[in-house]
Amino acid sequence: MANPIIKAQGISKVYMLGQSDVSQRNFQESIRRAIAAPFRRLRELGGARTADQEFWALKDVSFRVDEGEVVGLIGRNGAGKSTLLKVLARITEPTEGRVELRGRVGALLEVGTGFHPELTGRENIFLNGAILGMKRAEIVREFDRIVDFAQIGRFLDTPVKRYSSGMYVRLAFAVAAHLEPEILIVDEVLAVGDAEFQRKCLGRMDELRSQAGRTIFLVSHNLEMIEALCTRCILLHEGRIVFDGKTVEALEKYRAYGGRAGEISIAATTRMQWQGIGNREDLRNVAGDGDLDFDLSFSVGDRDLDGVHIDVELVDSKGTSVTHSKSRFLRGGFSVKANSAITFRYTIRSPMLAPGPYYLIVYAYDPRGVLAWIEHIDACTISARSYFPAVDFIDEIKGTTVPHFHVELL
Amino acid sequence: MSQAREDSNNLVIIDSSGRIGGFISEMFDRRELLMILIWRDIKVRYKQTIFGVLWALLVPLLQTVIFTVIFGRFANIKPDGPYSYSVFVLAGLIPWTFFSQALTLGGQSLINQQHLLTKIYFPRVFVPAGAVGSCFVDFLVGLLMYAVILAFSGVVPPLGIIFLPGLVVLMMVASLGVTFLLAALTVTYRDFKYIIPFGVQVLMYASPIIYPSKLVPEKYRWLFGLNPMAGIIDGFRSAILGKPWDIDLIAVSSASAVLCFAVGVMYFRNTERRFADIA
User: Fold this and answer.
1) 3-class SS at B231?
2) Is the dihedral of CA B265, B267, B271, B273 positive or negative?
3) CB-based contact A100:A141 (threshold 8 Å)
4) FRET partner for B203 with CA separation of 20 to 30 A, picked from A127, A139, B34, B182?
5) Mutate to test the interface with A, among B17, B121, B185 (most CBs of A within 10 A)
6) Neighbours of A249 (CB within 10 A)
């Protein structure tokens, strides 16, 4: 193919960050600043720049996409995925660089953009459709299919403010699913909605690709979905493309990037510091019935510590705590030497977790108080295939664990 | 095949030049969206009201009653022709209500719909233009009902009524221009949230609504005309009630309206690319 449908050359996007640390101010200070604000703003108008900081959300991003390709965009939070989508969707303009798009772009960065709560389902279909870029005639043509897809039936003429959240999302999806642009840009939107509906939406995307030959650009944290839909992946890290190629390789690289970016350190003391999970590599895509072991590494400050305990909480993608284990349940505190590197091995035997990504919360303390407290550490992804090789990659598993079970007809 | 045609026609280039695609052609292409946005605004505005779109006339009518009592009776301001003060005031209030509503609703339209700006692309001018458009529908309803009132009170419009559409166009030009400017300014400077209602009030007294424009001294008439609504309202009275035309005043106001439009569109075009980042 001679001409790519998307051609991006050297896109960069810079944001100016205002003055920092809003959180640390006390009340008096806030009032003082609020009063001073008009004068500061007026000075800025006059050309005097206050010390703004530049933040490059995207730096020199170039790629091309051919017609009919389904490209996944992956990267940690803050890697620039959303910014890139916004540039492609023409919501924000790049600071540098240029994008050429050949064809109508449909962007789905949110479900139900422009839905008005006072309007009925029927009215919102037309409103939302028009905002997404459909022509009236198209909406009329697809109308029955949209209503059918959304399963809202007799609520069609009810204001959407009276809808349940499920109905609302279904209707919003239904409209979007019938958008047929040459280029479809989809953000994390599929993360909402129940499993059955998600599958329906995925099916629809697959249809768009295979039958209509549409080009799809997809962002998701759900790596299994990326794996199933995309032939190619672009991996972003701190605003730059670090890999662009086969999905399988991209996912491996993504895992290797080991994202300390996702970690949130709530408390880090000089007495003990978090170094990461030592055995991260082989913790990826864990089989559901295997053991989970994490090597949690720390460096100790310049004092010996006694009575150190460590707690580990495993959290699923919805933020629900799945397991919580405390070393104190098992034994007395550990003693560690000053200026040493230490590693705790936490083993959770065959937790039989439901498929999906999991995160760790690690909490270390001694009798004097907290030593380290880190949240949102990427722990592992439990692969669905390890349980049910025959079943679709996304299934309606509602629980958080998948016990050994048998079914027989008596 | 059709592929080649698409390649040449549908090419969209995004860069930092600030010009996102073909402006006019794109607006034409998406005109249905503008219609739907106007329809949405009207629908939502009169949802759960008893009088519905009748409010488009009720508000100026109630204002007329108040103004007639206060300014017609107490202050004893005389109309500029052989008609009652109420008829005189209402002729000014019909275009003024449109203008003030357009500025108020249109000026806030972008910040009230930030969620649209940051989530999807469409011609940004549709947001304020939609707000102005919905006010225009109200205006047409109000005008129609005003015609009925006039018919009942036996006022026969003069031949000059044929110029009314021209005045309406002028009124649209002025309103769109000012609204574009205010909407774009409000995105960056939220101060305009407070400035607009105040400014609208000031402008009302600077327009010949409760008083005839001949009350303004001859040598300041041009200054008076810089407010585009001054000439337009005066023109409405000439077209509907047969007051002698004040061509000079209308000329100054027309020039001012066109200037407002040009400035409004230019400022909007130059800032719209930043809306999503600021909003």
Assistant:
1) helix
2) positive
3) no
4) B34
5) B121
6) 14
Chain A residues whose CB is inside 8 A of the B110 CB are none
A14 touches chain B (CB under 8 A): no
Lookup result for tokens 């960065």: A109
> How big is the CA angle at B181 (ends A83 and A12), to the nearest 5 degrees?
20
Q: What is the predicted pLDDT for the residue at B268?
A: 93
**pLDDT exceeds cutoff 60 at A180:** yes
- How far does B171 lie from chain A, in Å, by closest CA? 28
Extract the runs of DSSP E, i.e. beta strands, from chain B.
Answer: 11-15
- Partners of residue B33 in chain A, C-beta under 8 Å: 130-131
Give residue-wise pLDDT tens across range B179-236: 999 999 999 888 899 999 999 999 999 999 999 988 889 888 889 999 999 999 999 9
Distance (Å, whole) CA B279 – CA B98 = 27
pLDDT digits (tens, 9 = 90+) for A117-152: 889 999 999 999 999 888 899 999 999 999 998 888
**Of A267, A323, A322, A321, nearest to A298 (Cα)?**
A267
Query: Does pLDDT of A261 surpass 60?
Result: no
Q: In what order do the strands lie in the sheet with A341-348?
A: A272-277, A292-300, A341-348
Helix axes B247-271, B164-188, angle to 10 degrees: 40
Q: Which residues on chain B are in Cβ contact (under 8 Å) with A157?
A: none
Q: How many other β-carbons are positioned within 10 Å of the β-carbon of residue A148? A: 12
Chain B CB contacts of A96 below 8 Å: 16
Structure-token pair, residue B12: 């969209």
* ipTM of model: 0.85
Interface contact B47-A118, CB threshold 8 A:
yes
pLDDT tens, B146-182?
A: 898 888 888 788 898 999 999 999 999 999 999 999 9
Non-local (6+) Cβ contacts of A81 within 8 A are A73, A74, A75, A219, A236
The closest of A379, A299, A306 to A346, measured between CA atoms, is: A379
pLDDT over 70 at A367, yes or no:
yes
- For A90, the closest chain B residue by CA position comes to B121
CB contacts of A127 in chain B (<8 Å) are: 36, 40
How far apart, in Å, are the Cα atoms of B130 and each of B25, B34, B126?
18, 6, 5
| Closest partner CB to A89 (pick from B32, B47, B121) | B121
Residue A92 is nearest to which of B7, B11, B277, comparing CB atoms? B277
Phi and psi angles of residue B252, each rounded to the nearest 5 degrees, phi first: -60, -45
Mark yes or no for CB contact A99/B7 under 8 Å: no
Per-residue burial over A65-96, b if 16 or more Cβ lie within 10 Å, else e, is: bebbbbbbbbbbebbbbbbbbbbbbbbbbbbb
Q: Which residues of B touch A99 (CB under 8 A)?
A: 13-15
CA distances from A6 to A65, A100, A211, A312, B42 (A): 5, 6, 20, 45, 39
Alpha-carbon span A171 to A179, nearest angstrom: 13
Nearest CA in chain B to A103: B10
Q: Which residues of A104-136 are buried (b: 16+ CB within 10 A; e: fewer)?
A: bbbbbbbbbbbbbeebbbbbbbbbbbbbbbbee
